Amino acid sequence: MAGVLLLGMACAASVRAEEGGFLTVTIGNDETIRQVAEKYLSDPNLWPEILRSSGVESIADLHPGMQLKIPVNQITDANKALIEALGQIQKANQAGAQLFAPDEIGRAVDLHEQALEKRKVRQWVETKDLALASYDQATSAIEISEANRNQAAEALVSDRAGNVEGQRPQDLSWRDLQLRSILIEEEKVRTLSDSTAQITFRDASRLRLNANSNAIIRQMRFDPLKKTEEAKVSLVEGDFYALLSGEGDDRSRFNVEIPNVNATIDSGNFWVSNGADSAKFANYDERPVAVAAAGETVTLGKNEGTVVDQGAKPRNKVAVLPAPELTAPDDQGPVYVTTPTLAWSPVDGAAGYWIEIATDQNFDRMVENDFGVDGPTRQTKPLDIGEYFWRVSALDGFGLPGVRSDARSFRISPDDTPPFLKINAPAPGVIIRKASLTVSGESEPGATVTVNGAPAEVDDNGGFSVTLDAAPGDNVVTVVATDPAGNETKQERRLTYMPDETSVVAFDPAIRRVGPSHFLANGDVISLNGTTTPNAEIEVRSGDEVRASATSDGEGVFRINVALTADEEQFGLAVIAPSGFTSVEDFSVSVDRDPPEIAFDQFPPRLTAEAAMKVSGTTEPDATLTFNGAPLALDNGHFEETVTLKPGANLVELIAIDRAGNVKVDKSVVVLDQDPPELVSTDNKPASSGGQAVLEINVVAEDASGLAKAAPFVVVAGDQTFSGYLRYNRAAKSYQGSVVLPETMLAEARLARIELQDDAGNSRTYEIQ
Hints:
Elements: H1 2-9, E1 14-17, E2 23-26, H2 33-41, H3 47-54, E3 67-70, H4 72-94, H5 97-100, H6 102-120, H7 124-147, E4 155-161, E5 164-167, E6 175-176, E7 182-183, E8 187-191, E9 196-201, E10 206-209, E11 214-223, E12 228-243, E13 253-258, E14 261-265, E15 269-274, E16 278-283, E17 289-293, E18 296-300, E19 304-309, E20 318-319, E21 326-328, E22 333-335, E23 341-344, E24 352-358, E25 366-373, E26 377-379, E27 386-395, E28 408-412, E29 421-425, E30 431-432, E31 436-443, E32 448-451, E33 454-456, E34 463-469, E35 473-482, E36 488-497, E37 506-507, E38 513-515, E39 518-521, E40 525-531, E41 537-542, E42 545-551, E43 557-563, E44 568-576, E45 582-591, E46 599-600, E47 607-608, E48 612-618, E49 624-627, E50 630-631, E51 638-644, E52 648-657, E53 663-672, E54 678-689, E55 692-702, E56 710-717, E57 720-729, E58 734-740, E59 750-757, E60 763-767
Parallel strand pairs: 12-13, 22-28, 30-36, 39-45, 47-53
Antiparallel strand pairs: 1-2, 2-3, 4-7, 4-9, 5-6, 5-8, 8-11, 9-10, 10-12, 11-12, 12-15, 13-14, 14-17, 15-16, 16-19, 17-18, 19-20, 21-23, 23-26, 24-25, 24-27, 27-28, 29-31, 31-34, 32-33, 32-35, 35-36, 37-40, 38-39, 40-43, 41-42, 41-44, 44-45, 46-48, 48-51, 49-50, 49-52, 52-53, 54-55, 55-58, ...
């Protein structure tokens, strides 16, 4: 308080101390309230606190000589506690509290922030209490951190491929090391063929064991304050390269042990190999690698290497080979196959190459790690879709890896989709009349296009256009688009080049005609057919009127029906070729609607007993005639034919067709019957008729052609005979009649003979016993 009084005495205002942590100040004539706040509270913006403590409602109520109460102890104590809490938090962080005491340091920071919030609302007591609590939490964090500073560090298997195994001191056998496995001091790690493992230390330093390597992590110590690590690794066999974190004095320290060789490493980027005959070292950093063996030490600078033969001192250091230049694929470019071929420029003196492929630009996640690749190309194993980073270093004759190339990337984007291709011209199936042909269309930008095997220039939008000469007849235009992935789209356009030529029309010879272009019809329609230009439009024109239309097929065949309006008409047959060229051929049509007449010399009989029958007569001389379906020759219109009839009904059909196609048909049926009637039964009995004695006779007979109307008979009575005729009764279907006899002969009278005849003239006499 005495120090505060001395400060106040230097001001124009008079000052005196009071109880309760307040200072009483009398305002001088040349002072403002902000000046008083800045003098006593070190903050001119705290002048409202002075008014509140002094019971002054408004700044307008202030005047020189007025006494004010300043809460100097409350505010200064709160601010002091805040400053001390912040300093303690900073010390705790420097001691590693974020790593070793995250909960305690978190609470300290939280309490400090709460105290600052209370200070904003002028709650000084709460501000001080929270700041003191923050100070206590930060102090606990320091104590916990310092207690954990000196402990063994751990490492992590941050990447692995293939078979990676580990063995701790207490283990009896090797175990599989999974990704993110924790490694401890004295643990052995080995990789088998085609395998690799990355070990990451706490300070982010990395060590990459290549295939067929075996190492022992002898020591791992981490300084959490300086964030540096001291590590010692014994390389039993194989090789590894390391990237150490930190710069200057903060860089991690690394020591490599190989039997009879010791390497002290300040470098942050180096490679080590241990084989049966020698150990090898290469340094790629400005800071050195000291290799000691057989009492001598070789210190490697940047991009230098050495070989230590078994039991010998290190060889003189040599410059490692320069970095190759990566050439393919394009950096950051797409690759459309899952097994791309990587290429780089050859390096003079290279005995092989070391290629690394990873999924990240730090090469923490390795997918391929091939040491000793022959030649400046390499096809990868199948890769998943995604981005990959790769780099290459050349191996010299000693097997020392040279400087790594700058890393490049590519993206696996498998593309088996054929490119877009559209042919705008020519249209499918188009017919052209000139030989010059323009082929145009669109494809994907970046695609290459060929037309009939010749390259076509493609613009930035994918458009292309070329001019070809077509050959007469059918032509095929083949367009092939190929995208950068090698996928192809092929399209064809078929077209016909038809120079302007008159179409030839060949009418069917079967069309009835008077002359070559004069046709006959027998009705209101004539059917025309023939051949002409294939796929042509056919029109039958009568003056300006199109009477009928059709289309020829691919062979040029056409068929068309034409309506007729007169017995004599003239027409033009227009052939419009697919090219549009039109040819016209004239023809005429006459109409004949009357069929030819058939006149018989003697009409065929309905019924006959003669098997040979002659048919003869006349018709029109130019008609064609068939008899029962067979052609019948005409002699100036006369015909004659003898036909052998078959028993039963025989068809006699004559068909005459004139030039116009009119048809006359004459049909008749001739029955050939050569069988006489059959006698079925006879019956005779005495009777009287008109007072006379008579013998009544009834005869039943059958015949397919029909029976004659009368049948002669003979009756015997004793030694006398009597004859007469029986009449055929169609209703009774029998012959009936009677004969007058003497009454004395009636009893012995009987029918002895009857002659039956049919309508065809066949007859038979039956003797009746």
